[in-house]
Amino acid sequence: MTAPHPLDRCAWSALNGRHSPFAIIRGGARRYDLAYGVFAAVADQSDASLAGLADLIAEQGDVALLEADPPARIPGVAVVSQDLGVQMVAPQLTPGPRVDFAIVPLSEADAPAMRALTALTEPGPFFARTHQLGDFVGVKIDGELIAMAGERMKPDGFTEVSGVCTHPDHRGRGYAGALMRHVATRILGRGETPFLHAYAANTGAIALYEALGFTLRREVLMTRLTRA
């Protein structure tokens, strides 16, 4: 039997591997500590695993599932929303232009600015300690953080590029593409493969990712669950 691909259930792979220190576990269910992320996964569709997920939602709050198939009905749990997305990978990158701005590493001291920028631009779920899941870089003008990108889920052999955003006043200058290329190049340099997720309807972002060298791996469903 062929082993499942780590990206088929990337949250489960990450929470059972390199990101296990960030996991809260109830039976056959795992979720990121809410300070770090909203994603969750179950070992299987057994009643015991689904009950564990329901317990996590009741105790810790809403979760999101990011998998190819819709979840089974879970007693005590309601679906908030379900959106079609794409999962893309970049075993190699396309050549890119030289940039005329500095890309700087972001540290714990930048955390308030990172949260403010993500609150303004809404690139996806970003919480108080999301920036601690991996390395982040950014672009600053006169000390103000105006663009950033970094790493999120880390299944074995893969690292997700995430948190990509640019202040509305500074868009159209190539910051997002350059930051993504920088992050993805470092991931490749570690012998891993960069991957990412995007809503299927976000065709503009997908076009940028394709220009960088990312290709479609599969469609996924972003399902948000809450306590019924």
From TrEMBL:
Under PROSITE patterns, the record lists: GNAT
InterPro entries to which the protein is assigned, alphabetical:
Acyl_CoA_acyltransferase, GCN5-like_dom, GNAT_dom, YpeA/RimI_acetyltransf
> Pfam families from the xrefs?
FR47
Q: Broadest EC class?
A: transferase
Keyword Amino-acid biosynthesis found: no
Q: Where is the N-acetyltransferase domain?
A: 101-228
| GO MF term set | acyltransferase activity, transferring groups other than amino-acyl groups
Q: Which domain of life is it from?
A: Bacteria
Which keywords describe this protein according to UniProt? Acyltransferase, Transferase
SUPFAM superfamilies cross-referenced by the UniProt entry: Acyl-CoA N-acyltransferases (Nat) (SSF55729)
PANTHER family recorded = ACETYLTRANSFERASE, N-ACETYLTRANSFERASE DOMAIN-CONTAINING PROTEIN
What is the protein named? GNAT family N-acetyltransferase
Question: Which organism does this sequence originate in?
Answer: Sphingomonas lycopersici
